[in-house]
Amino acid sequence: MSHQKNRESLSNQTPLPSGGVGGGLGKYLNSRYFEAANRLTSKNARRRIVAYVESYDDIYFWRTVLSAFEDETRYFEVMLPSHKKLERGKKSVLMNFIEGRGERQEERLGRDMIACVDADYDYLLQGATPQSKKVIESPYVFHTYAYAIENLQCYAPSLHDVCVAVTLNDHRIFDFSEFMKLYSETIFPLFIWSVWAYRTGRHTRFSLADFSRVVDLGGFTVHDAMASIVHLRRKVGVKVRQLQGEYPDAKEEYLNVKESIKALGVTPQTTYLYIQGHSLFDTIVVPVLNKVCNRLRQERQEEITRTACHHTQRRNEMSCYEHSLQDIRQTLKKNTGYMLAPQFKSIQHDVEQYLTTARTSPETSAVR
Q1: Angle, to 10 degrees, between the axis of helix 311-324 and the axis of helix 286-307?
Q2: For the chain, how many structural domains are there in total?
Q3: Cα–Cα distance for residue pair 217/282, rounded to 1 Å
Q4: Strand partners, 49
Q5: Are residues 101 and 164 in the same domain?
Q6: pTM over 0.85
Q7: Closest CA to 267 of 339, 191, 206, 215
Q8: CA distances from 21 to 24, 49, 109, 258, 278 (A)
Q9: How many other C-beta atoms lie within 10 A of the C-beta of residue 94?
Q10: Phi first, then psi: what are they for 22, rounded to 5°?
Q11: pLDDT (tens digit, 9 = 90+) per residue, 263-291?
Q12: Do 92 and 162 have their domain in common?
């Protein structure tokens, strides 16, 4: 790297105000601060756009979103707010930090400072709550469309590739896309009730935790995956009938919610992308991956045993194979197969619109 590039790189690293977010930052750190900092750098230096996220796990995901939009004129720096009182992972607190006390949101966010958050149910609520309104209406807040990044990491068409990365065995012994489609279709009627409960303020009677308990797969085996779907179908049917009995006058509202979420891109076949992300990751996808990967590992180990010419070769090849195996959870967290998902493309479209607006409006524009 040349000395000139080194100087440019250093000039881009404009320091934050002393005292971190807890002291001067609460008063001074907003989009205008970063715009002013960018003006102080060399005319040839790239503009820095700060993207605040909710947790450490979010940093890599949003890097995969934003890196495609970096060029010789701009780059993104993805980071967490470091306010000493900010409880990381809580979107409500992140949004409060971004807005600030006594400030309008547009005075905090803008051309050089954005927020990137999990959609949770806020996308599906479509402004029914103040937080949902912030998430879907601000041009400087970007969300995942799917419930969370974990849902996109579990994007069904990419799960075979995860198995290959974990086991180094490319034998397709399980159809993840078909299974997740059946799972989604099974839970879809209850999912509509869940969104209805949050839109109408009845979530204390039917919470996300209640929903997650019902849609847990329970036992799962690779050779008889349909048995778990049949069992799930019974559980969902029982809960749906219970809710119908408790709210007999809610049929019209239920049907309206159903049509509304379909218009937002939710289909019976893709419901899994919109349920609670940690629940999907921990209680549905990882257990299924464990069972499938165990079969694939066993298959590969049997092949090594069968084809080895002698004991020493078998031992060496087995040791080499076992040292090459990867951890399922960590591999799934680094899975980028979601980049082919429609939801990911929607995020990219939003970023592109924001950058187009920023190019045509050099000054921070108001919230739409």
Answers
A1: 160
A2: 2
A3: 11
A4: 76
A5: no
A6: no
A7: 191
A8: 7, 17, 15, 42, 29
A9: 24
A10: -70, -30
A11: 999 999 999 999 999 999 999 999 999 99
A12: no
